[in-house]
Design brief:
The structure holds 2 protein chains of 2 kinds.
Chain A lengths: L10 H4 L17 H17 L10 H4 L2 H17 L3 H17 L4 H19 L12 E6 L6 E4 H27 L2 H8 L6 H31 L6 H32 L16 H18 L2
Antiparallel strand pairs in A: 1-2
Helix pairs in contact in A: 2-9, 4-7, 4-8, 4-11, 5-7, 6-7, 8-9, 9-10
Chain B lengths: L9 H26 L3 H17 L1 E4 L3 E4 L3 H8 L1 H19 L7 H23 L6 H28 L1 H4 L14 H34 L13 H19 L10 H8 L4 H7 L17 H31 L1
Antiparallel strand pairs in B: 1-2
Classes of the chains: A mainly alpha, B mainly alpha.
């Protein structure tokens, strides 16, 4: 109907399936603009949609965030020091018990640890063979004297311990992050012997990442909706360079504005916080428990 | 490039945290001197843009895209010292909130990406662009700076991963941490970074910074004095010290037991010998004296672990009380 009343739609606009701009579909798969938009969207989703475990009334949530962080770091050190698969499995079981007691869904914990675990698995798979880890053969693939190829017991055990260790450490950090609100993470860090300006800058960094990421998203979306004519790779790169620089310029301007706003509110260059160090019996109990497990592991 | 938790032995992590401590301290001092009270918002915002830059896919010839770290881009705006802090903050946020890189390996990741990379890129650029370079030489200098910086950082990652089987294996030869030796990690990292990631960083660095040369050059970092001067000084010191280092052998300085001192000096100071016997722990070897059977020995382990933890908790408690006051 639309075509019959005299509106001429150009041929190139009728074709679908091919992205209009080479920078949106270079070679195979998506182009950099679409990839960047997808990356930004998934980032915003991840930050703005916390699973809500931090507000639940579980074991870890009841512990002071500072004690919680210290305890989790001690558990991570324990995981780093353990040498046998069995001992790491025991620790991992403890992590799962802690997650359950903190009302954190084990599947959510696994989902967080999975990307690193899958990456690690593919990375270490060749290490099961004798050419990386020679030892007692478990499965022999080629028995030729010139080039024997087999899966070694040492290789299998080595990657099992490695994967379990990575899994335990990643799960512990994820458990802390899932049970702690972002503001409490930065509050907890203030207790550690890190200069206050770094912690203050860290929480400010997190806040302004959201501002800058919005700038980046807007420029990418604006570019995408305006793209009707194919542009060259060089033009695409030139555009991206200008946008990256725009973000840098914007951030420098914002830093100046933030500084002026801070000065106007009486900031003289010295950081003052309202944190009062007050921990309860259960916080000390938690630190004591994590230290106890660490010391036990050192003697295994 | 981001090393996750569990890949490096605690010793390696400790050494790299210790290596970064003076770098962070010096960077903080330098930044404080130049930025004063402005430092917090400026560092925070620059860390934020570093984080955002790391998310961008850069198109490279051949139809693929890749992420850049942006160490050299940031160094060209802030100078190498402030970049150390800015990138360290960005890497901390990535590790804590997004599980990109580990917490125990944060020292290592900062050493590779927040220290080696910006400094390598900064100096490579200034060596190639020394004098009065034209647009073309600047572009080439930036491209090579990005490429070299990325590959130096990758080499550091390869060495850190590759030494793990050497320093941490179980008695039966089983690797405890990253399982590949240097003969595997170095070629693997070299191949991927010389062919691909180095190219992404090189193109990204050249395209962003050369864009600024054309539009707003005033925003780029200008060193107060000849940027190559510290490099020359460091090179001269290294040249002088290298033969001395080759001559040195034996135990680390100051860590001698009286036996070793005796072999070094010909005698052991009497005072040291006296002091050595002064302190024997209450539970030598984490065991309770007299608890010799395996069952009792296990109990001894548990009791000493419990006592050790209780003592530390008590110390934290007392420190907390004093602090509150």
């Amino acid at each position: 109907m639309g075509l019959s009343n005299g509106v001429n739609i150009p041929e190139w606009l009728k074709t679908t399936g091919v992205a209009a701009c080479p920078c949106c579909s270079i070679g195979r798969g998506k182009g950099f603009i679409e990839k960047n938009i997808a990356a930004i969207a998934s980032f915003i989703k991840e930050v703005l949609e916390p699973e809500g475990f931090a507000n639940k009334n579980g074991l870890l949530q009841q512990i002071d965030p500072r004690a919680r962080l210290l305890g989790i770091l001690l558990f991570m050190l324990t995981a780093a020091l353990l040498k046998s698969a069995l001992s790491i499995i025991l620790l991992l079981s403890l992590v799962i018990l802690m997650a359950a007691a903190s009302r954190v869904n084990a599947m959510i914990l696994l989902k967080r640890a999975l990307p690193v675990l899958i990456f690690t698995l593919f990375l270490v798979l060749p290490a099961v063979f004798n050419f990386i880890n020679p030892g007692a053969p478990v499965i022999t693939i080629s028995a030729r004297d010139a080039f024997p190829l087999y899966i070694s017991k040492q290789g299998l055990e080595g990657i099992a311990v490695f994967l379990l260790r990575v899994g335990a450490m990643v799960s512990l950090l994820s458990l802390f992050m899932l049970t702690t609100a972002y503001s409490d993470v930065f509050r907890a860090l203030q207790t550690f012997p890190i200069p206050k300006i770094f912690v203050a800058a860290l929480s400010m960094t997190f806040r302004y990442i959201m501002v800058l990421i919005k700038v980046a998203e807007d420029s990418h979306l604006a570019r995408k909706v305006r793209t009707i004519k194919p542009s060259t790779l060089k033009q695409g790169r030139g555009w991206l360079a200008s946008r990256i620089w725009f973000i840098i310029e914007r951030s420098m301007e914002t830093a100046e504005d933030v500084y002026l706003a801070m000065t106007a509110r009486g900031f003289m260059g010295e950081i003052k916080t309202m944190t009062i160090f007050e921990m309860k019996g259960r916080d000390y109990g938690w630190i004591g428990f994590s230290l106890f497990i660490l010391f036990l592991s050192m003697q295994l | 490039m981001h090393i996750p938790d569990g890949y490096l032995s605690p010793k390696t992590c400790g050494v790299l945290y210790a290596a970064m401590a003076p770098v962070w301290y010096l960077s903080a001092r330098k930044v404080q001197k130049t930025l004063h009270a402005k430092q917090i918002p400026l560092l925070a915002l620059s860390a934020a843009f570093t984080f955002v830059i790391m998310m961008f896919n850069i198109p490279i010839p051949g139809g693929t895209t890749g992420h850049m770290v942006g160490g050299v881009v940031v160094a060209s705006v802030l100078g190498p010292w402030a970049t150390v802090i800015s990138l360290s903050l960005a890497l901390t946020i990535q590790a804590l909130l997004f599980g990109d890189g580990g917490i125990t390996t944060l020292g290592a990741n900062c050493f590779n990406m927040a220290f080696l990379m910006p400094f390598a890129g900064y100096y490579v650029y200034h060596i190639i662009a020394a004098g009065n370079p034209g647009q073309r030489r600047k572009w080439v200098a930036l491209f090579i700076a990005g490429y070299v910086a990325m590959n130096i950082a990758a080499l550091a990652v390869a060495v850190e991963l590759g030494i793990q089987p050497l320093i941490a294996s179980s008695p039966d030869g089983r690797p405890l941490y990253a399982p590949y030796p240097l003969s595997v990690t170095i070629p693997a990292m070299a191949a991927s970074h010389l062919m691909f990631f180095g190219l992404v960083e090189a193109i990204g660095t050249a395209m962003v910074v050369s864009y600024v040369f054309k539009t707003n050059e005033a925003m780029l970092y200008k060193p107060a004095h000849n940027p190559l001067k510290p490099l020359w000084i460091a090179l001269i010191i290294l040249i002088i010290l290298t033969p001395l280092g080759l001559l040195a052998k034996g135990t680390a300085w100051g860590e001698w037991a009286s036996e070793e001192l005796k072999s070094i000096l010909g005698y052991a100071p009497a005072g040291l010998q006296r002091l050595e016997g002064l302190w024997t722990s209450i539970m030598p070897g984490y065991n309770i004296p007299g608890f010799d059977s395996p069952m009792k020995s296990t109990l001894g382990y548990v009791v000493s672990a419990a006592l050790g933890s209780a003592l530390i908790v008590l110390t934290i408690y007392i420190a907390g009380r004093i602090w509150k006051r």
